[in-house]
Amino acid sequence: MEPWDTNIKILRERYPGLEEELHRNQGPPRKILVEKSAAGDPTLIIEGIHIHSPRDPVREGRRLAQGLTGDGPLVVLGFGLGYAAEALAAAQPERPLIILERHGAVLKKALETRDLGEFLHERRLIFVVGGTGEGITGALALFGGAAPGEGSSPEFLKNRALMQLDEAWYTGVEHRIRTWTSREDVNMATLRRFGRRWVRNLARNMEAARDLPGISRLAGCLSLPAWKKDGTKGSSGPPVLLVAAGPSLDRVRTLLPAFAERCVLVAVDTSLGLVLRTGVSPDFTLVVDPQYWNARHLDRTAAITGCLVTESAVYPPVLRQPFGRTFLCGSLFPLGRFIEDMVDPKGPLGAGGSVAAGAWDFARVLGASSVWWAGLDLAFPELKTHFKGALFEERALAVGNRFIPPETWSVRALRDGQPFWAAAAGGGTVLTDRRLSLYSAWFENRFRLYPEVHTRSFSPGGLAIPGMDLADPEELLALPPRRDEINRILGEVFAQITGDFYSPQRIEERARAFRKARDTLLEGLEGIKSLAEEAERRAAAAYGDLGRKKNVEERILAKLDETNRRISSSAVKDVAGFLFPPAEELEARLESPPGKPLERYLELSTKLYRALALAAEYNLSVLRAFPPKGSKG
Length: 633
Description:
Helices cover 48% and strands 12% of the residues. The protein is α/β, with parallel strands linked by helices. The radius of gyration is 28 Å and the shape is globular.
């Protein structure tokens, strides 16, 4: 059989859709030649440029594959005839491999030229061909963790010749990858700054896991058969309007009352004040950021008939706001998850670092098939940061003076986030920054995972996000009013949830589970604290005994291994480890010389166990300082 016949058979079986992509993403016409190298293997020439070694491309591929020693996904930028990718797959078969090739014609030529059957049978292999490279975020989410903090950073193997031919495309894809993987650095910096505050909030709000229903009880409520009983033309579940706080919200703020007649309206904390000032009470308001200043967005809000959607780590006054009812999403933090899993799981909500990400995922949980965005810019159109009258603007006006005028705050917001120019949704370019591009990467990946949710935006000046269409407000206004229907069916859903969740039997069941969960938590943290303190003493003593006593290594390593096993088997290890500093940070402070591995190991172990004991002690002190209140019936 010819190489093409062998390869295409495997391709059709294992990579459905890839053959179509090869033809759809051929790329501009290029002069592509295949010649025999000096070693006898085929080599590739494009526009007169040798893509592989003209002497020995197999040997060159093996050489390029050396030196990649991590455990995250391997990303090949430029496949060519596949020599380097083959060498990588053979040398590290356990690591995922993501192939990026600008032109389908190049990959097609490889399939015609070489028998890649063994390589294509690799189970941890993904191809991203042509387009804008948008498929890379989905591949990284599959192999590198869908949420920040999961998985390891990818390593790159670059075909410099192919990248030179399409420099803009490969540079753009590489930027997407680095944006996606830089989430971990952002998360760690945030944890260092706010970790203890989040633990305190969780301890003060802990009874919310017992007393408040979760968003899982709302799942699919916009796709219920009840919506189809209405006689409205084209009747189905209503669309969802999500209201963020970007500058483009000013373009449609006067239309919000008319939108609310046609949509289930979901506001985020930063936009709630403006929505209320238009005379609209949102059906749902999302508040999931645990920080103090996010709670201030709810200041001076009158009684709200709609629902609050929040999580148990929010600043405690949020849970006392006058909303009609409150639902919890699953906690993002180990302490909250531990209690919820034992008492009443709430249902996860995607976390993309922004409350806007949570709002979109909430609409998806509700069962929406049509989602419209107002105020989602993820950029600075006309160098504006938020809608007019936002809390950020009011605060700048309040604290500004002639030495630090309000404009200074705007300049800092534009300057301090590593700004750069990117494509705008309506054409041209718009200023954005690294943080906002992180959110964009999350949305792009989510749109690919859930293509059945059609998402549109009213922001032509916002950042262009693949998977989100630009729409005119008149398109939404052309839909029929459905407010009475929305109020009626949501009211029925709420009544059913109330009857089940707050029944005397359910209340008593949750109260018992809550007491057991809290007792288990305190007992587990005490156990980890004791184990860590004892291991710290042993490691420190052994460190001091080096050079003075024999067989120190054999005795101490066995004891520390047993301690590690017991800590790893604890049900609350993630709770205790949440405030644990990175091992790399502790390792950087070691005083032992690099040439003495046992000495460095014992010194590092002493610091690690000390940090773990302190983290467990902090959790215990906070939990005891805020005992839970009585059950809410």
